[in-house]
Design goal:
Order of helices and strands: EHHEEEHHEHEEEEHEHEHHHHEEEEE
Distance between the termini: 33 Å
Number of helices: 11
Structural class: alpha+beta
Strand content: 15-25%
Shape: elongated
Number of domains: 2
Strand order of the largest sheet: 2-3-4-1-5-10-9-8-7-6-11
Length: 357
């Protein structure tokens, strides 16, 4: 559920322990580690020097002024730094935080979270690239190309608070898998988007924080506009114009009238119900919902990261299945193990049927 993270310690308390930790080999020259120093880093610390170390997907910086920053992937750290390709449950998150405390002496109640990624990996039988090419806009803004190995799209930043990333995780880790893995995530830049006040590592397991994270992931995907295939031969001239406009990202970008945007989205939705045999957005959202439900199925009202979880009942979400042919997408389905169906709400029961053109 959680992945990329930025953690900050503004005091000197943990500095000696990290610099002397046997698992960390620090360098003064960042070029030796290959780490890229961002412009925001330069502005934030005004060129301050630091020592840097890397360990299992995490980057440790100890600045000369005493500040400590850890950034990287909690999921990769859990997988010994190899990948973040598999499912990462709340139970796994807890084990990861316990390991951070045990290996590096990190106080989970004082380590402040400055940035966090919330997302899921979906195993699919369809081309992730084709799905990504169907993305139109989010909040009326076109998607942008991602700087990543494989095929991906990200939204423009929504103010300074967050943005979305949707990309081909399977291509990123082709040496580990030959499956199609669709990655959907919300990258939180400003943590007040989740809730006001400081957020610490220990809060990641608190029930209300988990619920809010799930809500963000669901709501953000709900606001994505996706191209659904329709039988255009059956469209009237007016309907064809509407459809052509609605699948064009530039149309939404230049449409400033909020009332008309709302009306056109409603008309587009109605048109799809009449002329499309697909439900790509609805089914993908259902897949995201079921995966979120599985990975957080052991969420308690009160969580203590220093005690063990009860054993999870094994559950598995199989795949979002879009059959394709030489002419493009042909059909779409979600398949689940029978044991998974009890995790789905009644209004998700339709996702286990195949829809074809």
């Amino acid at each position: 559920m959680y992945d990329g993270i930025v953690i900050r310690f503004p005091d000197l308390n943990g500095r000696p322990g990290l610099l002397n930790n046997p698992n960390l080999e620090f360098f003064r020259d960042q070029k030796e580690t290959g780490e890229v120093i961002t412009e925001s880093d330069k502005l934030k610390y005004n060129g301050l020097n630091f020592s840097h170390a890397e360990y299992k997907g995490l980057h440790f910086r100890v600045y000369d002024n005493g500040s400590i920053i850890i950034r990287g992937s909690l999921h990769k750290y859990f997988n010994e730094g190899k990948h973040n390709l598999n499912r990462f449950t709340i139970k796994d998150v807890k084990m990861t935080l316990q390991n951070l405390n045990r290996e590096f002496g990190i106080n989970l109640e004082k380590a402040r979270v400055n940035s966090l990624e919330i997302g899921v990996n979906l195993s699919t039988s369809f081309s992730v690239k084709k799905f990504i090419d169907r993305l139109i806009v989010y909040n009326n803004k076109p998607f942008e190309a991602m700087d990543c190995k494989g095929h991906g799209r990200q939204t423009q930043r929504q103010g300074v608070q967050y943005y979305l990333k949707i990309y081909d995780k399977g291509t990123q880790y082709i040496s580990y898998t030959n499956e199609n893995i669709l990655r959907y995530e919300v990258k939180i830049i400003k943590m007040e988007y989740i809730r006001k006040g400081p957020i610490y590592l220990a809060d990641l397991l608190e029930a209300q924080f988990v619920d809010r994270s799930i809500e963000i992931a669901r709501n953000c995907f709900q606001d994505i506009l996706i191209k659904e295939i329709v039988n255009r031969k059956k469209l009237t001239e007016k309907e064809e114009l509407l459809y052509s406009n609605c699948i064009n990202p530039l149309y939404w970008q230049h449409l400033k009238d909020k009332s008309k945007r709302c009306r056109d989205k409603q008309k587009y939705s109605a048109l799809l119900k009449t002329y499309s045999n697909e439900s790509l957005k609805e089914l993908t959202l259902s897949a995201i919902n079921s995966e979120l439900k599985i990975i957080t199925s052991n969420n308690f009202k009160i969580c203590n990261v220093l005690t063990d979880f009860k054993d999870l009942v094994p559950q598995r979400f199989d795949s979002l299945d879009i059959q394709s042919n030489s002419n493009g997408l042909h059909g779409l389905a979600i398949t689940c193990n029978p044991c998974d169906l009890s995790l789905l709400k009644k209004d998700y029961s339709h996702v286990c049927k195949t829809i074809t053109n």
